[in-house]
Amino acid sequence: MFHYPLLYPTRFVFTAHPTVKALWQQTIAGLCFVLLSAGASYGHGVVVHTEVQQAIQVEGVYDDGTPMAEAQVLVFSPGNPRTPWKTTTTDEQGKVSIVTDPEVLGRWSIQLRQAGHGATVYLDMEGDTVEVISRTESGWLKTTLIFALVLWSALATAGYFKRGRARHAHS
């Protein structure tokens, strides 16, 4: 039953038909369901799980001090040195934090690669101790090797053509 005394000067009484009344009840129940379910779907809760682990901090920088930002990082476990155990990238400062499996002991290797440059760090893990075994820088080695191969190729090509002229001169 609805009364609208302010809107209508004469008294207006509205009596709902039983089917109309049921329709209103269903509409109100539906609105309540939508409002309650919308609140549940937009009100996300946050659950944070925290675990304290020992992490290995690795930082990659070029010779001029520029950080290796977004460099590829490959972590190899002692049991499988060919397939990466984990792959990730460095951050904008060239840093990455790696948590290895404490159950796997032995020599781990961590490679940083970016645009033909890279380095590998070997870590020996025994129990709670971690020892950095060696670090290799492949930038100068790769450059030297490429220069030597180009030089050898040029000398071999020059020798081949010089030998060909000598054969034509004698025949």
How does this structure look, described?
With 171 residues, the chain is α+β, with helices and mostly antiparallel strands. The chain has a domain at 55-142: Immunoglobulin-like (Sandwich). It has helices spanning 18-42, 139-170, and strands spanning 2-3, 13-14, 56-59, 72-76, 86-89, 95-98, 106-114, 117-126, 129-137. The strands form three sheets. The protein has a five-stranded antiparallel beta sheet with strand order 5-4-7-8-9. A hairpin with a 2-residue loop joins strand 8 (117-126) and strand 9. The longest helix is centred in the C-terminal third of the chain and has 32 residues, at 139-170. The radius of gyration is 37 Å and the shape is elongated. The mean pLDDT is 80.
TL;DR?
The protein has 171 residues and is an alpha+beta fold.
Descriptive keywords:
2 helices; transmembrane helix; Immunoglobulin-like; membrane; transmembrane; alpha+beta; 5-stranded antiparallel sheet; Nickel transport protein
* Number of DSSP strand runs: 9
Q: Biggest β-sheet, characterized?
A: 5 strands, antiparallel
**CATH secondary-structure class of one domain:** Mainly Beta
Strand order of the largest sheet: 5-4-7-8-9
Number of helices: 2
Measured distance between first and last alpha carbons:
123 Å
| CATH topology (level 3) name of one domain | Immunoglobulin-like
Looking at the structure, what is the overall shape? elongated
Radius of gyration: 37 Å
